[in-house]
Specification:
Protein name: Kynureninase
Keywords: Hydrolase, Pyridine nucleotide biosynthesis, Pyridoxal phosphate
CATH architecture of the largest domain: 3-Layer(aba) Sandwich
Shape: globular
Strand order of the largest sheet: 2-8-7-6-5-3-4
EC number: 3.7.1.3
Catalytic activity: L-kynurenine + H2O = anthranilate + L-alanine + H(+); 3-hydroxy-L-kynurenine + H2O = 3-hydroxyanthranilate + L-alanine + H(+)
Number of helices: 15
CATH topology of the largest domain: Aspartate Aminotransferase, domain 2
Bound molecules: pyridoxal-5'-phosphate
Cofactor: pyridoxal 5'-phosphate
Structural class: alpha/beta
CATH class of the largest domain: Alpha Beta
Radius of gyration: 22 Å
Distance between the termini: 40 Å
Helix content: 25-40%
Order of helices and strands: HHEHHHEHEHHEHEHEHEEHHEEHEEEH
Amino acid sequence: MNDEEDIASIESAREMDAADPLSDLRDRFFVPDGELYMDGNSLGPLSTDAEAALDHVVDEWRTLGIHGWTDADPDWFTYGERLGARLAPLLGANPDEVVVANSTTVNIHTLVGTFYDPERGEKLVVDDLDFPTDHYAIRAQLRQRGVDPDEALRVVESRDGRTIETEDVLAAIDDDVGMVFLPSVLYRSGQLFDIETITEAAHDAGALAGFDLAHSVGVIPHELSAVGVDFAVWCTYKYLNAGPGAIAGLYVNERHFGATPSLAGWWGNDKETQFDMALTYDPAHSAGAFQIGTIPILAAAPLDGTLDIVEDAGGVAALREKSLALTDYLIELVDERLPECEVGTPRDPAARGGHVAVEHPEAYRISLALKARGVVVDFRPPNVVRIAPAPAYVGFEDVHRAVDHLREVLDGTEYEQFDRRGAGVT
Ligand SMILES: *Cc1c(COP(=O)(O)O)cnc(C)c1O
């Protein structure tokens, strides 16, 4: 791939697709006709597997009614724990350290609310490129504890507006810190954090380490238990393709089993005693304790289907290998063919997530022009076109074609037909 003409030719993309052992997986996804779908880090597409799993629980609801809680196959009563156990290999966790429950934002509320302890250290380390909801939830939890978020939050600042230096995170961690809560992958630039180094530094300072894995679960393997991460949250509608508003996941290291969740509810009760209906809460001795109310089975079933795809791919490591090949290829093409754009994503594979941030001052209007051509990407302010070639259903030729479109949009200044951001209803 060193020959410039070679990189730019569609034949070389087709050769890479032909050699790709995962190329058949795409037949299991519904991608709207004619679209190049590069937005699976916002919402993954439907698959036949997800649809069948959803149909299955709808059928059971029809035929079993309330008996489904015990008689469905698999039963609905322990559905959250069972899906947690299926997800555990993706996280490098023990089966009982993972459960699906709630939404990501709610899981941040309950886990930060449970594990933040000013006695351990009042300061909570975050960064200034985080996804906003994480900060909203953390600030709310600090206020609940009578702590002023402006005092307690120690916000690591980006030097370049794209990435966070590990050394700056480490410099922020001292004896005043009780918790570090960071993303695995930054949602805009796609930087992958060094979870192991950060967790060790937090522990050395007597602090806990929590992570938001929204942009890595299903596309990057994790080793949470080996690393000793204290807790983590993620959504399943991005790279896991479980559908809009699908149930989220959470991880709690077994050393914290028995902690009383800040947002307690009966679905987190020990399953053995849940239906004793005692008025005092008896938390499950597992991550299951952090469930709150009744599991939304219809929002959980598609995940049961899509996890088959991950298993058939040979696990997340195989998906990661293809993902890095796709993002390498995309970065090469941007360098070669789009000199007016910059790549905002780290080039080092060890620091790169599953998507690529292509920067241009007109990123907003360019993303609208791409969408009008059926290239589904998204815009992130101020200047990023986010392109996510998700490895389960995007191929090298797709990446090549997306760059062709981008080249044509820039050549014809086609984006000028679109209103500037803020000029009207968007
Ligand atoms: C997508 C995403 C979320 C979404 O949270 P919801 O509660 O599912 O809306 C949260 N955090 C990060 C980092 C995300 O990328």
